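User: Before I run my own analysis I want an independent prediction to cross-check against. Here's the chain; please return only the structure tokens and, at the end, one sentence I can use as a sanity check.
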Amino acid sequence: MINIRKLEAELWESADLLRAGSKLTSNQYCMPVLGLIFLRYAYSRYKMVEAEILKNRPSRGGRVMPVEASDFAAKSALYLPKEAQYDYLLNLPDDIASAGILNKDGHTMNSLGEVVNNAMQLIEEQSEQLTGVLPKSYTDFSDEILSELLRIFNNSALDEVGGDIIGRIYEYFLNKFAKNIASDDGVFFTPKSLVKMIVNVIEPKSGILLDPACGSGGMFIQSGDFVNHSGMNANNAMTFYGQEKVEYNAQLCLMNMAVHGLTGVIKSSDEANSFYHDAHNLNGCCDYVMANPPFNVDKVKAESAESAGRLPFGMPAVNKNKEIGNGNYLWISYFYSYLNEHGCAGFVMASSATDSQGKDKDIREKLVKTGHVDAMVSVGNNFFYTKSLPCSLWFFDKGKSEEIKDKVLFIDARNYYTVVDRTLNEWSEWQLKNLNAIVWLYRGEIEKYQQLIAEYKNVLGEAVSFEESLHLLKEELKDLQKRAKTEVEAAGRNDKKRVQASYDELIAAKNEEITVAKEAVWLYEKFGEGVYADVLGLCKAATIAEIEEKGWSLTPGAYVGVAPVEDDGVNFEERMAEIHRELLSLQAESNDLMDIISQNMKEMGL
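Assistant: Structure tokens:
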């Protein structure tokens, strides 16, 4: 089995080492490197489809008929001419200039960069979706660096197209580039756990999905994965539409979709500015809308925005310069307006939008009164790669059941997350499932909740309760750590690292089990076998009447209250006395050290 995390890290480290040794910035390096990952994916997929075609291939005169572009088109796959195939590029001679290789226009090529540019042009000729999208700046690279990059991405693990290894690698690199470049405040990359949360709550099945601020296409990728995982073909079940004002980001999106085997219609540049254009004419037509729009955009031209429509609750406040000073409620209005009569929306929004005043409050009141606000989730700090601000997830559902038509589910998840590093938090897979479980119970979908409990039992075992399981795992971890210490100390000098490494793996695996057990306990102690209940500090299903009492605020913290502080079993007075004694002892040590230093300096004649 492939260790995907290890593979991701190794490939990134190798590629970024080359970048550091070149004169290229991360921004210059990003698109070409992602293009090579795309090229490697395209070749793996090509070989897989080619093998399928050749299974029942007719032959003439004892020779099997060669595959053609039309054979691939029949299977909705991308055909690669020989000069665009990865192994062809890998096996080129070192001296390109002397090899007499011609490009598609019949001109001699003198560098590996020219050959790779030519490969990208040949691929674009095979795909209308990719026309003008693939990078062609490979002459910026020396032949040595480009050759080494081709070698790095020629890892056999990337041939596992069915497991979408290459898609994971592409997203990993996109993530790393987002952190390194930090351009546009990272607007082109929405953290994966936020995207997954949106997709998991909306549960797309079939129909039209629009992202009018699509960036690198994360909403499309996760939706495609969700649909494929349910047993359907995403390209057959879904139609993907995107708008992205920044052309660079739209290119990333189309490449990302192609890497994941998805097709879609993405518009960019001025016609894709959602404030002024409904580029696909989808107002009132969408089954799903998902987005992470830029927050708090100012100087939006009011007259142009008003004439562009999609404002069912009226215009936000307009200043004396005839501009909208904050575009948040333009986005919120668009997401609602794009939905058809049973459509769902999920999007990321600045936390300040949940209780902003003035015209925003009037729009929010009208929105809540429709009964179509489904859920609100508060997200803590440090979920974005280049911002530390908190945000909220909003969910609309025009097809809500009558039982919850006059309710909104509020979840305050600001204190529920996994720390990745000092500046980044995320929701783990199990935390995503737990948050999703709250939504299921609120909707009355008890079977889904029970399936999750069964999944926990399958992982942890059914013999004991989740709490007992957690206790046993902690004891096993202590025992492992003791054994590791004893055996590492007893090992010979040459064996210490090997013994430590083997125990590190066992300890890491045990810690993962403990994490799962903790999440199982977290969920089960709140909702048992599957009965929704408001949980202080976490969730509340509030009625529209209660929301009116709160001045039409949609801030989860205003409804869920504050969780009681758990008693950690420590006597406060005793602990303070201990700290005071420790402080006095440290001060005494400090004084002694100062005396010794002074004496030493005197002896040295200083």
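Sanity check: The CA atoms of residues 246 and 345 lie 23 Å apart.
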